[in-house]
Design a protein that fits this description.
Order of helices and strands: HHHHHHHH
Subcellular location: Cell membrane
Radius of gyration: 35 Å
Shape: flat
Number of strands: 0
Organism: Nocardia jiangsuensis
Protein name: Type II secretion system F family protein
Domain Type II secretion system protein GspF: 55-180
Strand content: under 5%
Number of helices: 8
Structural class: mainly alpha
Transmembrane segments: 174-195
Length: 200
């Protein structure tokens, strides 16, 4: 009966293991405590993101929002570089800066970021609209269409380049088969006839 009981040292060891709090894994201990910052979104993930932002900006302008409010409203939907430029221009416009100064400074601050070309084009349109009084919504819609056309052209060029690059290995694979099954039997057949008839 006593042989069937668990020895006391093993029972105490099991209770001690249950009472000791578990240690976190090494990987978790290496991370600093506190909230983790989310990685910045990659602007190359969606090549049409900038065109979508411009469409939203044009819709806000058509709805009657001032440019500063429209830029502030659509900034969170854009890629990081474009969003920063839109927020900066909106802040400067809200503080009373002239449109040409606000957009020029926003484009200069985002010159080395992704989407700098689109922001530069938008800044030029906004400055021109402020000088001439022309509708900015129409120009921004055309800018979005140009961005979509550029993305479509780039995709078509990549597809054509992929077709050319695929044709090379396929040609190298099929050329030996074509030589062995198409040309060599014909040459051997003709050589056999020529040599068999004693023409040489």
């Amino acid at each position: 009966m006593t042989d069937a009981l668990i020895p006391t040292p093993f029972l105490l060891l099991a209770l001690a293991l249950l009472a000791v709090p578990s240690r976190p894994p090494v990987v978790r201990r290496l991370r600093p405590p506190g909230p983790r910052a989310e990685p910045e979104a990659d602007s190359t993930a969606d090549p049409l993101a900038v065109a979508s932002v411009f469409d939203l900006l044009a819709a806000c302008l058509r709805a009657g929002l001032p440019l500063a409010n429209a830029a502030r409203a659509v900034a969170p939907t854009g890629p990081p570089g474009v969003a920063t430029a839109l927020r900066r221009a909106a802040e400067l416009l809200a503080l009373g800066a002239e449109a040409s100064t606000a957009w020029q400074r926003a484009a200069a601050e985002c010159a080395n970021r992704p989407g700098a070309e689109e922001i530069d084009a938008l800044a030029r349109l906004a400055r021109r609209s402020a000088r001439s009084g022309a509708s900015l919504a129409t120009a921004v819609t055309e800018l979005a269409d140009q961005r979509r056309a550029a993305v479509e052209d780039a995709a078509a060029a990549r597809a054509e380049r992929a077709g050319v690059l695929i044709a090379g290995p396929l040609g190298l694979c099929f050329l030996p088969a074509f030589l062995c099954l198409g040309i060599v039997p014909v040459v051997l057949g003709l050589a056999g006839r020529v040599l068999g008839n004693g023409l040489l």
